């Protein structure tokens, strides 16, 4: 591949990533639900918070096994997760896609099991289990 072709291919990566992100957010909105204010004392504070550090994709590519988040997260309806991607590469995190420099903030409003590929966990997968706190 020539340098011109390679540069041209890279210039389309953000558009592809943006399309994937839009699709992922639609799936999450349908599956996990969005909206509403929580019942906690500070509805703006996430219950679960994770940061994907800069250089994570490169470290993984070199064979390092990072455990930025657990293989499985158990949450209750009303709780919130926040994931900040400080890496230069996009990452799949179970039901979500997170582009470089983006922050995901999701309040769980629907019970269920949401799973998918995880590019930052050694198992390659991430599952979110959302329970009813009243059950």
Characterise this structure.
It is a single chain. With 135 residues, the chain is of the alpha/beta class. It has one domain: Sandwich (Immunoglobulin-like), CATH 2.60.40. It contains three helices and eight strands, in the order ααβαβββββββ. The strands form three sheets. A three-stranded mixed β-sheet has the order 1-3-6, with no helix packed on it. A three-stranded mixed β-sheet has the order 2-8-7, with no helix packed on it. It has a two-stranded antiparallel ribbon with strand order 4-5. It starts with a helix and ends with a strand.
Q: What is the succession of H and E elements?
A: HHEHEEEEEEE
- Supply the helix-strand structural class: alpha/beta
Poorly predicted parts: 1-40
Helix content: 25-40%
Q: What distance lies between the first and last C-alpha atoms, to the nearest angstrom?
A: 57 Å
CATH topology: Immunoglobulin-like
In spatial order, strands of the major sheet run 1-3-6
Tell me the Rg in angstroms: 16 Å
> Count the helices. How many?
3
Mean pLDDT: 77
Keywords:
single chain; 135 residues; alpha/beta; Immunoglobulin-like; 3-stranded mixed β-sheet; 8 strands; disordered N terminus
